[in-house]
Amino acid sequence: MNEKKIIEEIKKYLKENFKADATGHDWWHFWRVWKMAKEIAKKEGGNLFVIELAALLHDVADYKFNDGDDKAGGKTARVLLEKLNVDKKSIEQVCQIIDNVSFKGAGVKNGIKTKEGMIVQDADRLDVMGAMGIARTLAYGGFTKREIYNPEIKPRFYKTFEAYKNNQSSSINHFYEKLLLLENRLNTKTAKKIGKERHLFMENYLKQFFKEWNVEILD
Q1: Residue 13 near residue 84 (C-beta atoms within 8 A)
Q2: What is the pLDDT of residues 103-143, one digit of tens each?
Q3: Using an 8 Å Cβ cutoff, are 74 and 60 in contact?
């Protein structure tokens, strides 16, 4: 099977299995990350086949929906790729990216080492910034029954993955615990340029949110 057919088979699989998702991790999230990764790769280089595979499959078994298992994605991707007769070297590269692509807490070291991984991670992180990031954060918060905001619960700096994945914070706190940290954690020049605008959009959204939260008294 050639590379284009493999990509098409994976896209077909994702459309069928994630079309009804309401958590912000639907087929269109996979699609956006795939498209963004390809755009970044145009300027940054790298093995495009590996980048496309990892971008499409990066959330195929997200730890949030697999009992906190941050290796579930790599395991699931490996099975799919082996069935499609992808070469072993590419499979290893893709699985390494998938197992390390996610943000796991402000104090947790990034496990991404390769250019391909950096590109996929940047594409994924850009999709949780800006207007799209706001929409996805609130969608996920609703799905998990999180409060939109509670002033009695303050944002935290999570030093471990265990603490981060088990937190019971609000959706607005999530901006301070993750989203607003991402601009300075993007890997490539291309992504950093895109990230500036999206970061500013989130800052402006929060300013308006707290203005409305505090309800200014009018004369």
Answers
A1: no
A2: 888 888 898 999 999 999 999 999 999 999 999 999 999 99
A3: no
